[in-house]
Amino acid sequence: MDRLSRGIMDTRFASWCFACIFSVLASYRAQAQVALEVGTDIGLWRVTVAAEKTTFLGQYGTYVEPAVARAWNVFWRGPPSHGGGVPPSGGGSSGGSGGGSAGRPSKPRPDFWHILLPSGKLPRDLQLGFTGVPGGYASLMYEPDVLRLWAGLKPRISVEIMYDMNAVNGNAPTGFGILTDPTRGYASASITAFGPDIALPVWGWETGSGSYALYAGHGWMKDWTYTYGAVQSVFLQLSTKTYVHRTIQTYSLTGEWRPPRGTSSLLDIPNIARFSGVDFLLQGYGTEHMWTIGATAAAIWRL
User: Fold this and answer.
1) CA atoms in the 13 A half-sphere facing the CB of 190
2) What is the CA radius of gyration of the chain?
3) 96, 105, 236, 281: which has the highest count of C-beta atoms within 10 A?
4) What average pLDDT does the segment 224-242 reach?
């Protein structure tokens, strides 16, 4: 390729990158489910922006994880797990004549939830409402042309960023735990994460209705999480905040459908972009106390 042709290709690629970045910024507020891709001499590039919703609970996962673990054990017919992480004592009181407190487990410091609600039971007249916001997902993906694997499909290297928040508010007219007067509360958990992901094809097939592909991926992300809780009554106000920043592992499963080759679609944009299929993404994030599941989907257009 001569210098002029290479310069034209570089200019087109730079223009495509600028258009993709602009479309991501312009459509983020609308939570558009859009993926734009372009083929180059070195491979396929794709920018995706979509809405994503997760099951993220933040520090509140400490209260949910034991129940999930018990349900998992029951599902797999496993032994029930002991609560509190302390095995039952069987005749361990005769451990020696020195100090009586040497072999005695220390009592854990009570957390915000158990201070507020000593019985662990919610009031019967508690009214709850979900107030979480739609999450967002964006990625830059690259498929190299030099390597083909299962069913002629290529591996994928992506850089991803995601955000989500789940929140609930509540009202207890007759009180909540230690608060005996009408009480209102709010709890939220938000997460922002950024990092790379490598996905390999595990299945690919083609029928008269189009081509299908399945990818499995693994990656790492830097995440920033914020968990907040507050309750307010006439006589008392309590609140708690928790920040966590660390590196987490991610696992992904991607399903993709592309229409038959050479066919046109009503979704084609004449002289601009051709509709090229739909991408479905399911991800697992290894967050603080339990795994978080996130899902998103996007329609693909090829420039």
Assistant:
1) 14
2) 26
3) 281
4) 91
DSSP state of 57: -
Tell me the pLDDT of the chain averaged across its residues: 81
77-91 burial code (b ≥16 CB/10 A, e <16): eeeeeeeeeeeeeee
Listed by start position, the domains of the chain span 108-261
Please tell me the distance from the alpha carbon of residue 219 to that of residue 197, in angstroms, as a whole number: 4
Q: Tokens representing 144?
A: 């190299």
Work out the average pLDDT over 63-72.
80
For tokens 């996007």, the residue is 298
What is the Cα–Cα distance from 45 to 71, expressed in whole angstroms? Answer: 42
SS (H, E, C) 6-23: HHHHHHHHHHHHHHHHHH
Give me the helices (H) in the chain, please.
Answer: 3-27, 61-75, 112-116
3-class SS at 71? helix
- Residue 158's nearest CA partner among 183, 194, 132 is 194
How confident is residue 79, by pLDDT bands cut at 50, 70 and 90? low
Q: Is the pLDDT of residue 72 over 80?
A: no
Q: What counts of helices (H) and strands (E) characterise the chain?
A: 3, 10
- Between CA 282 and CA 90 the distance in angstroms is 45
Distances (CA, A) of 194 to 19, 162, 173, 188, 191: 22, 7, 42, 21, 10
Count of residues in the chain: 303
| 270 close to 280: Cβ distance less than 8 angstroms | no
**Stronger pLDDT, 101 or 271, i.e. the higher one:** 271
Model pLDDT, residue 177: 81
Tens of pLDDT along 109-166? 556 667 777 777 778 888 999 988 889 999 999 999 888 887 789 999 999 999 999 9
